[in-house]
Every structure is written in structure tokens, then in C-alpha cells.
Request: fold
Amino acid sequence: MKLKIFIIHLILSVIFFTNNSFSKTLPPGSGIADVPSNVLILLDKSGSMGARMISGGGMMYNYDNTTDGSGNFYTMSRYWWGIKKHSYANGATDLSFGSNGTYIGSGNCRIYYPMAISHNNGYLYVASYYTRRIFRIRISDSVCDWNVYVSYYPRSISIRNNIMYTTNSYGLGNTYDLSTATPTRKSCSTFRRDYIHFTRSNTVDRDNSFFYSIYSSRIYRYPIDSNGCVINTNGTARYIRNYTHRSYWNTSIDTHPTDSDILFWSGARNNMITYNWGTNSFSTAGTFGRGASTNSRIQLYYVQGVHVDYANNRIYLSQFYKHGTTILNLDGSFDKEFAAGNRTRMTGAHEAIKAIVTDS
Reply:
């Protein structure tokens, strides 16, 4: 009896597998992007499938950029996703940097709500807000070899001609000489004036003549003495609300590599502004949008960082909610963009299934 039952099961199994092997192929098209409808229905359409995909050139909540002058740029997450190194040519992430392409660090060199990043002579300098540290990373081997504790929360850093300027939640912070083996604190004043303690960004012109900070609807300019120290005096203020086109909460600022009168800054939502201090005139680039930027339309969505690449005459914009970087020429025209754009997990699944079904 048991033998008969086994033989019956065996015959049924053979029939079942034979029928499956001759089943109909998937019907072409009829779904989304040529994904067959009977496959499409199997996809999970829950809220998580609407999450945006981050490409190799992207960075979750990109907050600031810097460059090394050698065709590489660096993106920094606002929270704890770390720092990535990318190629300007195609945005590809350098997997040899950090751990599998991302530096997060540990201890006194840990990325935790960083505010700013800057490059100088083969090192990255980072201001990490909640760890109250400014530290540096040697790019060649991703080793953090210097850090300093900041009594007040560090808010911004800028470097020009081997001098690093810092601000914190008190005001203007320490100034460092970077020409030595390790950064050396200069004998410069620290002071609290003109909302410096609230500034999101600071910068210095090409020849270290003026220090600029930005807060809300004002830019403040301070003279720098022959020793490279910011002079403790009230800054010259420019009211810039009228230049920001709907958004007067400005976030970041940098200077032109050859013209000391020209500044670039970002309105928090929808544009990049070129401002001439000498003529008190301005121009804007970009519109508010989350789509991919093109030569005819630059779409900016909560730009948080502006960095000018002095070596290659480019402007790097950190796109916070587009999770990437938009690169402009000095005249404000479009160059490249590496960002998540409008791609989601669902659109990525469609493309992957289409490639399998159509063998493309």
C-alpha cells in the first residue's frame, strides 16, 4: 500500500513540473514602463517604495561640499551618514576612501551632526557640532590625525592660504595656522559681534583681506590684519533680503577666485546668488524644484552649502533634499549634477524587472 502511494505521488510530481516547464511566458507590456501587469502586482507599493534612491554620486541630506583641486569633490551628510569622495568626471564614489567609500570615524573624530567641511593640502577639516570637535582627516589613508575640543559648539570653518577661520555658538572662534605639521593656534582675538554666533557659514576672500559671515538677511564683512587675524570691530553689514527671491534665510557663502568683490551665496530654498560688493549689484541662478537640472533649467531644492573650487573655477551647491550636488560655472551656468532627483525605489524596481523581462 505504501509503495502504491509513493508511486502515485511520484507521477503527480512529474506531471506538475512538466506543466510548469511549458507554462506561458509573461505577456509583454501592459504594466508600467513595460513591466508586465502580472509582475507589477507583486511589487510592494507601501510607503517605503516611495523613498528616493541615492546614486553613487549622491549623499543623504548633503549639507556641505569641498574639493581637493585634483578632480575630486567631497560630500558631507548633515546627520551621521558621513563623508564621501567622488570623481568630478562621473560622480562615482571612491570606495578606497573611509570604509567602503564612506568616512564616519569614531571617538573624537566621529561624524555627528557636522556643520562644515573644508580641504587644505591633502587634508579634510570638519566641524562636528554635537561632539564639539574640529578634526582633520588625511585623505590618502582616511586617518584622523588631529582634533581639538571647542568649548562652544562649532558652527563654521573656512580656509584660505593656510589659515583656518572658525566660528562657534559664542562668536568668532580660534584661528589656526595650517602651514605647520599640525594646526597651530594663532594669537588672534575671539569675539561676539553681529550675530556671528548664529552664522551658518563664513568665508575669506582670495588674499585674506576680508572675512565674511552670513546670517538671515545680512552679510557682515570684517577686515583682516597683516597677521591673518580678523580685526575685532563691528562689521560692515549689507542687507540682502531683496536679493533672495522669496527666501531670505540664507545659508552659505563663498568668494570668487579672482575678483575679491564677488560673493556667491545660497537662498535656503530656490536660488544661487552672485553679488558684487563693490557695485552693490546681483544676479541669480536656479529655480525652486526637485527635478533634474539641465542647461536650460537649474532646479535647486534647499541648498545648504556653497563651495567655490578655486583650482577649477566651479561652484558646488549642496542639495539637501535632492541628496546630491549641483555644479555650476562661475557665470552661474549649469555644468553637472549628481543627485537622487525624482528616482524612487519603485521606479528602480520597474527598471530592474523590465531589464530582466525584455533581456535588455
Q: What stands out?
A: Residues 14-24, 29-33 have pLDDT under 50 and may be disordered. The first helix runs from residue 2 to 21. The chain is about 10% helix and 40% strand. The CA atoms of residues 29 and 36 lie 5 Å apart.
